[in-house]
Amino acid sequence: MVVGRKEGGPPGIADDCCVWVEICRALYANALIMLGGVRGCSIMVYIVKDSTPVSEELSALGVPHRLFRHPGPVQSLEQAAAEREQRPEQVVRSLLFRLAEDKFVMVLIAGPAQVDWRALRHTLSESRLTTASREEVLAQTGYEPGAVSPFGLPRPMRILVDESVLAEEELSIGSGVRGTAVILDSRALLAALGDVEVVSVAKKPSQ
Questions:
Q1: How far apart are CA 173 and CA 39, in angstroms?
Q2: What is the pLDDT of residues 92-107, one digit of tens each?
Q3: Average pLDDT over residues 97-126
Q4: Shortest CA distance to 173 belongs to which of 201, 197, 151, 141?
Q5: What does pTM read for this prediction?
Q6: Where along the chain do the CATH 3.90.960.10 domains lie?
Q7: In the structure, what pLDDT confidence band is assigned to residue 206 with cuts at 50, 70 and 90?
Q8: How far is CA 76 from CA 88, 118, 168, 173, 174, in A?
Q9: Which fold has domain 53-199?
């Protein structure tokens, strides 16, 4: 717990001071609670949870996993993998595609792999599809790009798992919170997803 005073004010707690109480348990959502009435002081309490929407759902399902928090902003897939002590192929990206006005599908694919649009259209039996916009990603998943996960979604969604994901034993997926990842076994991921479709929609190395 860190207690500070307003710059320029007298030390300690006085009638005209502003006290900050910072509770640091982990990086999650920045929840700010304003409390007043302490002899004119304004107290701000920052509460940080040690779980995320995704880890909470996995815990409820009894799926073994652990949270990893990056020490700072993540600028690339390679950086994310290195800080997690993984290879890029172990970082699973959850990509959202728009099929129609209110129809979306999520594709899980191994980090550096790219989606083969022809293969994806064939798998979905759709002639037209587009990558979901940032606004659509947030509206459909409840998560910001970079934090998307197949767990904790606000509504049921069709999910495809590219076979490249299952080539690794340990994986990391989005946790629902930017800068934080969930690390788990690929078999545990597949079991937690339940009746999910395993497909081949990644571009081959020769393509």
A1: 47
A2: 999 999 998 789 999 9
A3: 94
A4: 151
A5: 0.75
A6: 53-199
A7: low
A8: 10, 27, 20, 15, 14
A9: YbaK protein (3.90.960)
